[in-house]
Amino acid sequence: MIHRYRLVVPFATALVGSAFAATAAADEVNLYSARHYDSDEKLYELFTEQTGIKVNLLEGDSDQLIERIKREGVASPADVMMTVDAGRLWRAEQEGIFQGIESDVLNERLPEAMRHPEGQWFGFSQRVRAIFYNPENIDPSEITSYEDLTDPRWEGEVCIRSSNNIYNQSLLASMIDHHGVEGAEEWAQGIVNNMARQPEGGDTDQIRAVAAGECNLAVANHYYYVRLINSDDAADREVTEKVNILFPNQDDRGIHVNVGGAGVVEGAPNRENAIRFLEFLASDEAQEIFAGANYEYPVVEGVKMDETLESWGELNKDEINVSVLGGNNPEAIRIFDRVGWR
Ligand code: FE
Question: How many whole angstroms from 127 Cα to the centroid of ligand 1?
């Protein structure tokens, strides 16, 4: 059994005091997680089985967890913080949440692009930001890159969510790295010019909008599409029959990749256990569960992945170090403001 707590109330009225002890216990690790998948429970149980270390889990959204760790200060029991998107990991880093760690296991198991240069955090699963299209109106050979989406011929055809979403911020951050600020701004302006509607809804809504005929092209993370494919609801599966996925930039830098990741918290009372937990996440067995929970790509080579992902074959992925996405985040937000991407 793992101890599980959930932050569901606004901060001022959140749990008074700490859910866990801030003192080191030989056999525990306190995990603050912005991930909440049912299969994660299996993951923690497996860790306990292998190491005898008990996992205490506090779930909340990323900003809540950061705020909480800051508020708890030196008394914080947090050992590991786990969240999704390099932009969010970077925010946590900026707030001084993480400490740098050295681990031969992580250095060996994880590709370099999945490791923060100072070991502040590590990527344990990958999601790609794909392009979706209506196959009745679009010949996929006409769109081979994110850049193609800005072609004036697609005016009024592109559905994409708002710029306050971290996924778009990280995508634009990658554009800054590849094209410079000016090039990235031109791209963002081109997307705004081609929008079918003012941004609304989440990633799934963009895919649904293609099926509904509101636009012929959309941008969304791949796993939202796989969720629809595997949905119990026939209407969801029908959406995926009307919408195809394509993977941009396969002939140049590769598709934009983001991560689910984790780091050891500054002042972690159970530092050694925290490192063991991260090392565990890099094991074959844990990788399969961690990535599989959300139809994501494992970061360790050769680990079994979801059958839909398997069917898509090997992808050419942008190998930009994920810490760059965070570093370019403030500039990306300024560009969105300048081009009027709401
Ligand atoms: Fe998501």
Answer: 9
**Is-contact 261 170, C-beta < 8 A?**
no
Ligand 1 centroid – CA 206 distance (Å): 13
Judge whether residue 238 has pLDDT over 90: yes
CA 22 to centroid of ligand 1, rounded, Å: 31
Instruction: Say how many Å lie between the CA of residue 239 and the centre of ligand 1.
Output: 18
Domain locations in the chain? 3-126+257-310, 128-255+324-339
DSSP classification of residue 83: E
Query: Rounded to the nearest whole angstrom, what is the distance from the C-alpha of residue 167 to the centroid of ligand 1?
Result: 8
pLDDT of 144 > 60? The answer is yes
Provide mean pLDDT across the span 237-250.
98
Residue 221 Cα to ligand 1 midpoint, Å, equals 7
Query: Residue 319 — pLDDT band, cuts 50, 70, 90?
Result: confident
Distance from the alpha carbon of residue 17 to the mean position of ligand 1, in angstroms? 31
pLDDT in tens, 2-61: 666 666 444 333 333 455 766 666 799 999 999 888 888 999 999 999 999 999 999 999
* Ligand 1 centre distance from Cα of residue 260 (Å): 10
Domain 128-255+324-339 has CATH 3.40.190.10: yes
- Please count the other Cβ atoms lying within 10 Å of the Cβ belonging to residue 301: 9
Question: How far, in Å, is the centroid of ligand 1 from the Cα of 340?
Answer: 24
CA angle (111, 187, 137) in 5-degree steps: 95
Evaluate if residue 73 carries a pLDDT over 70.
yes
User: What does pLDDT average to over the chain?
Assistant: 93
- CA 99 to centroid of ligand 1, rounded, Å: 26
CA-based angle 232:36:314, to the nearest 5?
A: 70
Distance between Cα 193 and ligand 1 center (Å) = 25
- Check for a shared fold between 3-126+257-310 and 128-255+324-339: yes
> 3-126+257-310 adopts what CATH topology?
D-Maltodextrin-Binding Protein; domain 2 (3.40.190)
DSSP one-letter string for 178-229: HHHHHHHHHHHHHHHHHBSSS--S-HHHHHHHHHTTS-SEEEEEHHHHHHHH
Q: How far is the CA of 34 from the centre of ligand 1 (A)?
A: 11
